Amino acid sequence: MKPPKSRKICMDYSAGKPVDPRIINEMLSYLHSFFGNPSSLHTLGQEAKKALEKSREKLAKLVNAEEPETIIFTSGATESNNLAIKGIANRNKNRGTKILTSSIEHMSVVNPCKLMMRKGFQVVFLPVDNFGLLDLEKLETELDDNTTLVSLVYANGEIGTIQPIKEISKIVHEKKAYLHVDATAACGQIPIDVQEENIDLLTISSNDIYGPRGVGALYIKKGTTIESVIQGGGQERGLRSGTENVAGIVGFAKAAEIAGNEMPQNSERLIELRDDLIKGLIDPIPDAYLNGHPTRRLPDNVSVRYSYIEGESILLSLDIMGIFASSGSACAAKTLQPSHVLLALGLKPEEAHGSLMLTLGRDNTQEDVDRLKSVMPDIVKRLRDMSPLTPKELKS
Amino acid sequence: MGEIPDAEGVGTVGNPVCGDLMTMYIKVKDNRIEDIKFKTYGCGAAIATSSMTTELAKGKTLEEAMKITRASVADSLGGLPKVKMHCSNLAADALHAAIEDYREKTKKSKEV
């Protein structure tokens, strides 16, 4: 007899989110009926233009930007991060050539920074503590008159640790450098106020707030000196040329509106599930640990590690059961190196390799959490029985 | 999968720092691999290649078993992703190390 088929459970929502059904209809009309180019002067073009500007307002509202024109639409968070780093560094190089960032940034920040290094800029990757919090003293000592840009993640999506952005912003602005914050994982989960927190540039991703892929935004504070990375017809105030992806942008804006309205109740619910899951994945299993900060943590993020076994084998064991997770270890990714984020926390490579990352989404229920909690001890036990690293007392 | 407590040959290859470590245990009778088991720490490909290697080697003569290569293990699995060919496809090496360990040990016992 076949075992009863249980529901597939996705706990890898940071890798990709379903588009909220409430926004799809709205998007569709901009694909077939209002298909105009916002740069056209005729009515069809102006309909699209109106939708574009209305969308800008919705994005501005989500992060409390001073005016809609501060929002520049891009093709996603990667492009936004590239625009912020290259655009600020290049435009302000007469004033200084030093960039500060952290050792737990996304590759779309790391690699543009490395490119600037090859072009003669000085880049410092600031350390974090064991929880992933930025070393503020080191930030102060490295920040000098030659520094034009500090680029930091609001909350790292892999370990969930939320940085004290307001405090960081005070330090950065004492030296008159620009502060770029990558809020890809944080935006839509925790309230962000670019005016109150005094952020100069902010990266926002559409899919991370249940909007369509291929859309993102960069908030650029009024008066910021920046140059474009993509040149062409001068759309988006000349900062991002290319005919605007109106349908995508409309969907993104609707997602922003929903995220803004529903954030308090969604986050409260996810935090409850998150903390229950963390407890259930660590308490009953020996040599199991939490990655990241226990409380200053994104509502959706669960990152745990188990000694003596490897993350990908946990991921595949879960996959067989219809549960989709991610291994913090990059063995599942394109390189075989352990994640630079986990190593930056001070973990040894063999510790980092044992990590499992779960990111919760709107569709997850207590039932999903309970299922994870019930299957994990056996998976870990089976893999530990197989591993030559497991100490005798832990074997069956 | 598992350990052979009274194994006659043991071979360990890999490094936990890289994320893959495996040990092969063999028992030999009349120059044939009578029993073979593995212990593996690593990703899915590491575990799969370990398991496949034990299946390919069981019952073979030592000479035949020495001819099992990384490539033949990967082929028997229907291929491996490119990035996994180097790091995780260590099981044939572990098997060869176990056979060499067996040969060393039997040579020594003959000398005594």
Could you please describe the fold and organization of this structure?
The complex is a heterodimer of chains A (396) and B (112). Chain A is 39% helix and 14% strand. With 396 residues, chain A is of the alpha/beta class. In chain A, strands 2-8-7-6-5-3-4 form a 7-stranded mixed sheet, with helices on both faces. A 3-stranded antiparallel sheet of chain A has the order 9-10-12. Chain A is globular, with a radius of gyration of 22 Å. The model of chain A has no long low-confidence stretch (mean pLDDT 95). Chain B has helices at 44-57, 62-66, 70-76, 82-87, 91-111, and strands at 9-15, 20-29, 32-41. Chain B has a 3-stranded antiparallel sheet. In chain B, a hairpin with a 2-residue loop joins strand 2 (20-29) and strand 3 (32-41). The mean pLDDT of chain B is 91. Classes of the chains: A alpha/beta (396), B alpha+beta (112). The A-B interface holds A 308-313, 316, 329, 331-332, 334-336, 338, 348-350, 353, 385-389 and B 1-2, 12, 16-23, 39-44, 46-47, 83, 87.
List the helices and strands and how they pair.
The complex is a heterodimer of chains A (396) and B (112).
Chain A: E1 9-10, H1 21-32, H2 43-62, E2 71-74, H3 77-91, E3 98-102, H4 107-118, E4 122-126, H5 136-142, E5 147-153, H6 165-174, E6 178-182, E7 201-205, E8 216-220, H7 246-282, E9 288-290, E10 301-306, H8 311-320, E11 323-324, H9 340-344, H10 349-352, E12 355-359, H11 366-386
Parallel strand pairs in A: 1-11, 3-4, 3-5, 5-6, 6-7
Antiparallel strand pairs in A: 2-8, 7-8, 9-10, 10-12
Helix pairs in contact in A: 1-7, 2-7, 3-4, 7-11, 8-11
Chain B: E1 9-15, E2 20-29, E3 32-41, H1 44-57, H2 62-66, H3 70-76, H4 82-87, H5 91-111
Antiparallel strand pairs in B: 1-2, 2-3
Helix content of chain B: 40-55%
Major beta sheet, strand line-up of chain A:
2-8-7-6-5-3-4
Number of strands of chain A: 12
Radius of gyration of chain B: 14 Å
Output the helix-strand order of chain B: EEEHHHHH
Poorly predicted segments of chain B:
none
What is the end-to-end distance of chain B? 33 Å
**What would you call the structural class of chain A?**
alpha/beta
Averaging pLDDT over every residue of chain A, what do you get? 95
The ordered string of helix (H) and strand (E) elements of chain A is EHHEHEHEHEHEEEHEEHEHHEH
Largest beta-sheet details of chain A: 7 strands, mixed
> What profile does the largest beta sheet of chain B have?
3 strands, antiparallel
Rough shape of chain B? globular
Oligomer description:
heterodimer
Biggest interface pair, residues each?
A: A-B, 23 and 21 residues
Q: Using DSSP, what is the number of strands of chain B?
A: 3
Number of helices of chain A: 11
Query: Which of globular, elongated, flat, extended, rod-shaped describes the shape of chain A?
Result: globular
